[in-house]
Amino acid sequence: MAERDRRVAVTGMGIVSAIGCDPESVWQSLMAKRTGIARIASFDASDNKVDLGAEIDDEELQPRLAARKIRKKDRMVALGLEATGQALEQAGLVGEPPYDPQEIATLMGSGVGSANSLDEGYQRFAARGARGMRPTSVPTYMANSLSASISLHYRLTGTNQVIVTACTSATNAIGQAFRQIRDGYVGAAVCGGSESCFDPFYYGVWNNLGVFSKIEDPEKAYRPFDSARAGCLLGEGAGVLVLEEWKRAAERGAEILAEIVGYGESSDASHITSPDVGGQARAIRAALEDADVQPEQIGYVNAHGTATEANDVCESQSIREVFGDHADAVRVGANKSYFGHLLGASGAVETIVTALALRRGTLPPNLNLDDPDPECRVGLVGGEPEACETVYAMKNSFGFGGGNGVLVVRRA
């Protein structure tokens, strides 16, 4: 790391997901091997080929939103606001409202945006035409509604931006926040992603893409890296981290939870939906070089792990191409079988899980890995939690459109 580079600390983390609405609840679910995959309850999905997904329990979520005075927001935005509040509180940067203005940047990712509100708008337009559209439609539907709402609600006066790069969105947002702090543009940022896609329109679009698992048993349906894997399943949720310049965080007495030390990105430039070993490997190498870390120093890889036929083999090959024989030793885990594929938010939630694993010295088990695919030639975490003393871990995210983002995280 060059002397001019500033260290970047993680001082706050927040999660809202189908397996828990705060980091501790999520961790307990991971250790208990508890999945959030179930029959979809928020709308009638019976016309779809698959009716499974990982929805958040409203009985737990709604009181949290009410306590933060989060009202009349698109569900994706509301999830992001709740996760941000958790992260800012853990970092010691906010107390009770009203909040004082703070020069903190907001960089968030979402692959889809305000899907639930858009679905409602489509239905109103179909029923009443232009007369059915509400005056609030534009600010509700705009692509930057997530970062704008977070900035407004918590009075964060730094730049606010939304990065839209499909399933890599949140990882790219964290990476960009890391760079802005390291290079001296900002002192602190909230970053991550949010997604909620359980509406008839958007869920139906994904259903007809043909990538959903058709395994009937919800607890067995999502199987990353397993020979019997049959595809992915959607989830909803948000993950947000507070990143700060290390010295700033230390001087104000903040607890440092982890450190972001490297970020790499690339584009496959080969196919809109099919992954590419070369593109993924370039992002992995770039992250390692940025962190000044050798592959042998990485003890854990939190994989993109979508459980589709192409992705898991491709990602395994990408890891082996960069790691060589160390691919047999490095522990590789996938979290999507717990809280579903969160699309643009997945990288944030999985980065938080990675930081928690380093902090607690324990790796979450891989759910439903009964018969590892021999084509996935990496050191996969087994079906029980594993002890882990590694200092460095890696988080991979790869998205439709060919975008790849990789983070390197160091134990604090």
Structure description:
With 412 residues, the protein is an alpha/beta fold. 34% of the residues lie in helices and 19% in strands. The protein contains 13 helices and 15 strands. The strands form 3 sheets. Strands 5-4-6-7-1-8-15-14-9-10-12 form an 11-stranded mixed β-sheet, sandwiched between helices. Strands 2-3 form a two-stranded antiparallel ribbon. A two-stranded antiparallel sheet has the order 11-13. It is globular and about 65 Å long. The two termini are 16 Å apart.
Structure at a glance:
By secondary structure, this protein is an alpha/beta fold.
Descriptive keywords:
412 residues, alpha/beta, 13 helices
Based on secondary structure, the structural category is: alpha/beta
End-to-end distance, in Å? 16 Å
Largest sheet geometry: 11 strands, mixed
The shape is globular
- Counting DSSP E segments of at least 2 residues, the number of strands comes to 15
- Biggest sheet: strands side by side, in what order? 5-4-6-7-1-8-15-14-9-10-12
Please provide the ordered H/E string of secondary-structure elements.
EHEEHHEHHHEHEHEHEHEHEHHEEEEE
What is the averaged pLDDT score? 96
Low-pLDDT regions: none
Instruction: Describe the oligomeric state of these chains in a short phrase.
Output: single chain
Q: How large is the share of residues in beta strands? A: 15-25%
Radius of gyration: 20 Å
How many DSSP H or I helices? 13
Percent helix, as a range, is: 25-40%
